[in-house]
Predict the 3D structure of the following.
Amino acid sequence: MVNVNTVYQTVLQILNKEQRGYITPAEFNNLAQQVQLEIFESYFPDGNQLNRQNQNNTQNDTEFFNIFKNQEEKLYPFIKELSFLYDTNSDGWEYSYDTGSGVISSEYRFKIYYMGEILSSYNSSTTSSSSYGSNASSSGGDYITQLVSKSEYSKIIRSKLTAPTEKYPLAYATSSLFQPIQSVFLKINPKPTTVKVNCVVLPPAPRWGFISGIQGQYIFSPTGSTDFYLVEQEQTNLIINILKYAGIIINDPTIIDVAAQEAAQVEANEKS
């Protein structure tokens, strides 16, 4: 992770070098959140582009200069295996983002950006098939669950030939139509014992926290701060792009132009 205090102090030093201006902690936190989100969202189209080059064998494949692998590694902090909890009222499995009102576990502080592989676990001694008919087997184990639309789900479970089993479970999902997804509900047939889903999560908002000094100055507070969730290689990108927005706040076109040129050069170097 990138240290939020390092980034903020570097931004301030660059802005103050020629007395160009100052951005407050609140302004910095807003810019930091926006820039982190932009960098995070760029991983997906960039990754698709690099994957095409990778499939066509048109890129370097040495151990430390594989650009597709390097891009993929930037996404590692955001890949989480999240536990879904069983809801007896709806007879399904749910993951809900915890806003802090009632923290169940630290993993529920993430908002889901993309859902990947669903893993349903079965314990033959506790698996109940009463809610789903008699399709559950007694094998037990962990199995990848096929995700289909609700209409497909309804058709498949009604067919004796395609009815799901513990080894081939079936699921459909309902969630918010907009990203980031704050709540996801899964209906899984047969009913599993536990459910885990491999997800890409949205990075938590960075925050430069502070306490006020005797003279009203801002003093960095580690306990009230949240570091950037990006890999350390992104520190330069963060500083450059925050400076680009800071130039708008302090109305300095020079800062905007220089930062924009640097950002373009960094992006070109990463993709070349």
